[in-house]
Amino acid sequence: MAVAGLRLDRRVREVGGFALFVLRRVVALVLTVMVGVYLTIVVANMGGQVDELRLIQIRADVSEAVRGDPGIVPAERAELIERQVALEVERLNLDQPFIWRSLDYLRRAMLLDLGRAEQMNSDLGSRQVAAIITERLPATLLLFGTANLLVFAVSIFAALGLSRRYGSGMDRTVVALAPTSAAPGWFYGIFLILVFAFVVPIFPPGGMVTVPPPENPIVYALSVLHHMILPVLAIFVSSIFVSIYSWRTFFLIHSSEDFVEMARAKGLPDRMIENRYILRPTLPPIVTSFLLMLIGLWSGAIILEQVFNWPGLGTLLFQAIGFRDTPVIIGGVVIFAYLLAVTVFLLDFLYALLDPRVRVGPDGGRR
User: What is d(CA 98, CA 113) in angstroms, rounded to the nearest whole number?
Assistant: First the structure.
């Protein structure tokens, strides 16, 4: 009974320590996101200058609406204009100092209460920023999720194969091609469009689906798949060689360890040695490398989606910057910040689970 009680107490302390560790990481990431979003609010609003321009626009819109109403007596127009402008200014909190407005913008942004867009609208005609972003988010997740899973799977199997053929022609080729990953995905996308959409017109140069969109769900899915090939290939080419090279290096390092040599001396099958003694110990650095690469790809989504005219968050943010639509800009940055924060959180969480050398102590820290 005493031993069982001690084990239960130890398990409770480990669970409590892990929960405290997760809570601390979440709080730290939320604070980081808040700082980034607040800086975006200040920059996008030009320190309050955009709100001053908004005041001018409000007065112009109200004046035009009032003067265009023939039922209003000319003597009452000026008073009515001032009254409606004052109501609109109060509704938007434009009568408060910018520091308080910016904090209110931050609060609403973190809660995803993003209000109405100033210039843009969704395909269904909604001016709500949340509706506009919700409409574009699945396209970005589909494109980058597919490309990254493909890179991860191919890199693992290719790196394992090269670690068994160190010094071969294929191994030297991958090492020579690794520096090509220094170029971003959109750079390769331009050449892929030139070759496979114009010189040899096999794939469409951009978009997500044919126009008009097919009504049959299967035909629609095939059209999306057809349009995805070039952007996925651009992301794949920009990441695959450096991923194979770095992970092949991890496999080579672990394949020369004493416990691997001992397993070979015992006559264990090569597949078992790879899975149990090479792949499993290298999973933590592999996951770390993959998620760090994913963070870099999120930051490059704006240009790549614009190159392929892919209707995702990147294209939306680019258009919002052109329209100077501050609510949409802030909303897009918030979503990207949350995606980055979730990626970093998964990195910490998976590292603690995969690496047996990393333990979360009762004090909530890692040791």
Answer: 19
pTM of structure = 0.71
CATH number of 132-354: 1.10.3720.10
Contact call for residues 79 and 288 (beta carbons, < 8 A): no
* pLDDT tens over the chain, length 367 residues: 555 555 666 666 666 666 777 778 778 778 888 887 788 778 767 777 767 777 777 777 777 777 766 667 666 777 777 777 788 777 777 778 878 888 888 888 777 777 788 788 888 788 888 888 888 888 988 898 888 889 888 888 888 778 777 777 787 888 888 888 778 888 899 999 999 988 888 999 888 888 888 888 899 999 999 999 999 999 899 888 888 887 887 777 776 666 666 766 777 776 776 666 666 667 777 777 677 666 666 666 778 888 999 988 888 888 888 887 878 887 887 887 787 777 777 776 666 666 555 555 444 444 4
Q: Which of 8, 30, 4, 2 is nearest to 345 (CA)?
A: 30
For residue 366, give the 3-state DSSP assignment. strand
- Quote the Cα angle for 51-56-59, to 5°: 120
Residue pair 287/354 in contact by the 8 Å Cβ criterion:
yes
What six digits make up the tokens of 190?
């331009």
Q: Are 41 and 102 within 8 A, CB to CB?
A: yes
Which sequence spans correspond to the domains of the chain? 2-110, 132-354
- The conformational region for residue 126 under phi > 0 = left, psi -120 to 50 = alpha, else beta, is beta
Q: How far apart are CA 335 and CA 112, in angstroms?
A: 9
Task: Say if residues 324 and 312 touch (Cβ distance below 8 Å).
Answer: no
DSSP class of residue 214? Answer: P
DSSP string, 5-37: HHHHHHHHHHHHHHHHHHHHHHHHHHHHHHHHH
User: Which of 245, 246, 250 is CA-nearest to residue 281?
Assistant: 250
